[in-house]
Amino acid sequence: MSSIPPKHLRRAITVPLLTVGLILAVVVSPVVVPILALIDLASGSKRLRRTRLWLLIIASAWAEWGGAFAGNLAMIRFGWRRGNPGWIRVNEKAKSFWVKQHLRNVSRFAGVKINVENPEQCSIGNAIVLSHHTSHIDAVLPAYLFGPKGGLQTQYTLKETLQWLPGLDIVGGNLSNVWINRRPEPGSPMFDEIKALGSGTNAGNVSVIFPEGTFYTPERLQKGADRVAAKRPDLEPLVRSLRHCLPIRPGGVMALLEGAPDADIVIVGHAGLERFVFLSDIVSNIPTDQPWTIHLWRYPRATIPTDRDELLTWLTQRWVEMDNWIDQQVGT
Q1: How far is the C-alpha of 198 from the C-alpha of 302, rounded, in Å?
Q2: By the 8 A CB rule, do 243 and 107 touch?
Q3: What pLDDT score was predicted for residue 278?
Q4: What is the CA radius of gyration of the chain?
Q5: Exposure on the CB side of residue 131, measured as CA atoms within 13 A
Q6: Which tens digit of pLDDT belongs to each residue from 234-247?
């Protein structure tokens, strides 16, 4: 059972609240921005941390409102004629706008600069994408890499709580995505839905999942390692060697792979957001001068084990390799 209200009730709450809040923020900004700038300068923050944070919040709200507006406009324009190529094209454009605006905002106001080491991998479809999850910011990374940058469509497994963001809720709901509960009830159809999502993977798109489920903390790593030790004690030493990542939760990954038996696997590793794990970290650490470095590893399906136990071992080994790469980046 979903933990959030049905979409019509939810959107009747989120869209008006966002609209009113955005209007109020814009109205008071001519007063608030100079005050924040003076506080920053008086406290020695020459890079205007508080001012940048305020502007980041407003710019992010604008991007969210723009996504919600574009998604609603698409529903009005197409009415009941949804699912055809025109519908998909319009909503993909709305998603591209939403993604680029959010990344432009974190670049402009938080100082986060993207450096993709092997961008040629972003334009090759028919893949299940396993992306490392460090921060709220990196949720849009695969959509950017394979969408505006790579020219492909992306379909996601997304935490259902993200539907409280109206832009993501509406545009994401208009396209092929699955909203997931990290703790599904017995008999939940969630994994069948994820498998069905995977079955739509083709040369023109990729299917995305964040297999860690949440952000790294030492406490979460300990719990994850204990969970692995109880089920796969042979993998415990590998998992306990992780320094920046959490162990993979295999259920969703296995469902996607079952749905897409010919798709390759692409692992997206990145380093540079370690100081932006939680919202409080973003507040404390903007702006940053550390680049956000991304690397993609692609594995042809023919080289990947088919046995579930062997596959989980293989995935864990690849995850440790990515963790080692992150450690090298963080140390440089």
Answers
A1: 17
A2: no
A3: 81
A4: 20
A5: 27
A6: 999 999 999 999 99
Q: Which amino acid is at 249?
A: R
Q: With a cut of 50, which residues of the chain have pLDDT below it?
A: none
What's residue 10's pLDDT? 96
Give CA torsion, residues 316, 318, 321, 326, to 10 deg. -90
Domain ranges of the chain: 7-331
- Of the candidates 170, 315, 321, 182, the residue with the CA atom closest to the CA atom of residue 243: 321
CB 128 within 8 A of CB 260: yes
In 3D space, the residue among 64, 177, 52, 190 whose CA is nearest the CA of residue 112 turns out to be 52
pLDDT at 277: 85
* Cβ-based neighbours of 258, under 8 Å, separated by 6 or more: 195, 198
Strand order in the sheet with 178-180: 114-116, 292-299, 264-271, 127-131, 205-209, 153-159, 178-180
**HEC per residue, the chain:** CCCCCCHHHHHHHHHHHHHHHHHHHHHHHHHHHHHHHHHHHHCCCCCCHHHHHHHHHHHHHHHHHHHHHHHHHHHHHHCCCCCCHHHHHHHHHHHHHHHHHHHHHHHHHHCCCEEECCHHHHHCCCEEEEECCCCCHHHHHHHHHHCCCCCCEEEEEEEHHHHHCHHHHHHHHHCCCEEECCCCCCCCCHHHHHHHHHHCCCCCEEEEECCCCCCCCHHHHHHHHHHHHHHCHHHHHHHHCCCCCCCCCHHHHHHHHHHCCCCEEEEEEEECCCCCCCHHHHHHHCCCCCCEEEEEEEECHHHCCCCHHHHHHHHHHHHHHHHHHHHHHHHC
pLDDT at 332: 55
Residue 315: what pLDDT? Answer: 98
Tokens standing for residue 194: 């994820």
Report the alpha-carbon distance of residue 328 to residue 332 in Å, rounded. Answer: 6
